[in-house]
Design a protein that fits this description.
Structural class: alpha/beta
Number of strands: 7
Distance between the termini: 58 Å
Shape: extended
Strand content: 15-25%
Largest sheet: 3 strands, mixed
Helix content: 25-40%
Radius of gyration: 23 Å
Strand order of the largest sheet: 3-7-6
């Protein structure tokens, strides 16, 4: 079974099949109810004529020698979700069809520009502000705490404490 990474067994008699888990390491579990399992298969469609995003096949150097078609992409590669399809009657397995965005994707540029406008500042301050606006208050606070540790001037601490206080106020922690 070199081409199979994981096997999940679904059946009525869990105790009968549990011994299989001990015998074969690729069997990851025995289940009597599919509600606990969710699987997603990502299918990526790439048109190299529309994008300069670097990507490369790594079949020859992959850890998995099973013939899987693995591709590595450069950092910050963006994909558009084309559609999502249920692959089974229980709606627990899904196929997500992705398309590599074009270099001149107008909608992506408008979205990026809007995020830049709404997140004030630069660098770490911008990241903290964006996380706070997204409701990720704990992560935002972590970013601001790192900024406080790196701050050498006392006068630079006030705007950081203001952001932490604003996040706490929004959460009702005052």
């Amino acid at each position: 079974m070199s081409q199979v990474d994981s096997i999940f067994i679904f059946g009525d008699d869990k105790t009968y099949h549990e011994s299989w888990v001990k015998q074969w390491p690729k069997i990851k579990g025995v289940f009597t109810n599919i509600k606990h399992i969710l699987g997603i298969l990502f299918v990526i469609n790439i048109d190299p004529s529309k994008s300069n995003t670097p990507f490369a096949s790594i079949i020859d150097v992959s850890y998995f020698k099973s013939g899987e078609e693995e591709v590595i992409f450069s950092m910050h590669t963006v994909f558009r979700i084309n559609d999502i399809q249920a692959m089974d009657k229980h709606d627990r397995l899904f196929r997500v069809n992705l398309i590599l965005t074009d270099d001149d994707d107008l909608e992506l540029r408008v979205l990026t520009d809007r995020i830049r406008e709404e997140s004030a500042g630069t660098g770490w301050y911008r990241l903290g502000s964006l996380l706070r606006k997204m409701g990720q208050f704990d992560k935002s606070e972590q970013v601001y705490e790192i900024m406080l540790e790196q701050t050498t001037e006392e006068s630079d601490e006030a705007p950081i404490y203001l952001q932490i206080g604003s996040a706490k106020f929004t959460q009702g922690q005052y």
